[in-house]
Amino acid sequence: MPTVDTRASEAAPRLPDFPTFPVEAVERYRAAGLWGTRTIAQEFRAVASRFADREAVVDRERRLTYAELDANSDAIATGLLAAGLEVGDRVTLQAGNSVGTIELFYGLLKAGLVPVCTLQAHGHHEIDSIATTVGARAHAIDLSERADERSVFAEEVRERVASVVHLIQTSGGPSLLAGDDVLTLDELRLSPPHAVEAFLPEADGVGPDDLAVVQLSGGTSGTPKLIPRLHAEYWYNGIATAERWSVGPEDRIAHLIPIVHNAGVHAALWPAHSSGACLVLDSLARGLDVFRTVADEGVTGMLMASSLLDGADHPDLERAVSGLRWISLSGSAPTSRLFDRLSGWGVTVGQNFGMTEGIVLATPLDSSDQMRRHTVGTPISAYDEIRVVDPAEADRECATGEPGELLVRGPYTIRGYIGAPEHDALVFTPDGFYRTGDVVAAVEVDGVLAYRVEGRIKELINRGGEKVNAAEVESLLLEHPRVVSAAVVAMPDLRLGERGCAYVITDDGAPLTLDEVRTHFAAREVAKFKWPERVETRTELPRTAVGKIAKRLLAEEIAAVVANEGALVESEGAR
Questions:
Q1: Domains within the chain, CATH numbers bracketed
Q2: pLDDT tens, 440-465?
Q3: Buried (b) or exposed (e) across 94-114, using 16+ Cβ within 10 A?
Q4: What is the C-alpha separation between 363 and 350, in angstroms, rounded?
Q5: Is 279 helix (H, G, I), strand (E, B) or coil?
Q6: pTM to 2 decimals?
Q7: What's the DSSP call for residue 549?
Q8: What is the DSSP secondary-structure string of 445-476?
Q9: How far apart are CA 482 and CA 404, in angstroms?
Q10: 24 Cβ neighbours under 8 A, 6+ residues apart
């Protein structure tokens, strides 16, 4: 364990401002019993005391009861503060799906530190910018895989970001990182537990309406926007989700995509741990073998991307799914084949639609087959407010069944991003509704208004759940010395839903190869999920009447090409 730094510590770099909820909204949500009066650390302690002997979290190697998770995260909180971190400091988190990640997450919250939830796939292009913007004092990284490469990366972050002092190794074993300011979970768990009461963050002014976690947007331009999630509203987000799926102490909730990002927190971590249920962790990076974990652990419910299940074939799939009480599908509407297949195994199949900025729509478990098959359901809170408007006609309210842009406001939907007032002015209405950029239609089903997702206004590519901003990728392509014009569009993909296709014009008219693009993006240390996966070189690109590149035509073109190639492959295979 590093020795305590007794030097006078520098004040943490100031976090950029972000809009908070209006006072009248806070009072309304609290009076209705939606927002509590405790921090997330206090909420978790209360649940842990009620369900002390029940399993709280398991992965392929470890399992902890609520009492053990509570004690371990107390020790981690003590160790983090004893090492010199201070209440309010931000910690960028690049962590995988493990028990250690959950221990650290609660340890950070108990210490009054703010986790900034980044992707493991992020490179310096993203991490350096995010860490600098939030003034991160520590960077936590999982070294359970590609340890040599990732340890070098972490040390480079410390060198390149002036505010980063500490590195935290979230995986077990001896430290693989260099320096006196390296912390490991194994060391932090040994922190003297008697000291934890002295570090209660609420004693230092942290309250239920303060910043708890920073999440990332899908990225509307440049690096992702920073999303402030507050203690009371974020915990309520999880409670409302748990109520929609009737999660209770006997449940075991699996999560197979990154747990510390918003879908993991609101749809798995908080629902499980606000209800006394067990959280079961594994990673789809291991492929479909994760279904063995789901089956062996007796999972009763989980959120899953439709595209990852459609066509999935694994010997443990039926055994895993037939043990579920429910499964909620997201990302794209399930095919009839997938819906019927899962229903035939005895599981209640529903749909879910949400975003890191807040709003969650989900089909109730007891709703009709029509609602669960053809819509993403209804808002999870009675206090969610939804408008569907025609953005081309001064926000005219759309009639039932008429597609329009989804605008939302409510008890867990943010009122602005961190340090982005100019962007906020574009995407939030004067009365606080968030313009999602998603196109939906309200339809009457089961006597209520449910919602059907029609598409997106924003040019985001949904690659297996990760949002790729076309404008950011285009900007990076234009840095290539041979590229004079670029347009990036989504092309259909059976496994991931969408992948990025780059249309480019080169200075000499010769084709730009995919290998050249990969080399270019690697040199700029861009996360691999953002790299174009197909390149089409043209001598000109179609344009609209006002001179803009007609990306809709390009998207239609590549969709037809991909469909034709798929048909050719299928017909050749048949022969």
A1: 33-55+63-230 (3.40.50.980), 301-456 (3.40.50.12780), 460-574 (3.30.300.30)
A2: 999 999 999 999 998 777 677 888 87
A3: bbbbbbbbbbbbbbbbbbbbb
A4: 6
A5: strand
A6: 0.84
A7: B
A8: ETTEEEEEEEEESS-EEEETTEEEEHHHHHHH
A9: 40
A10: none
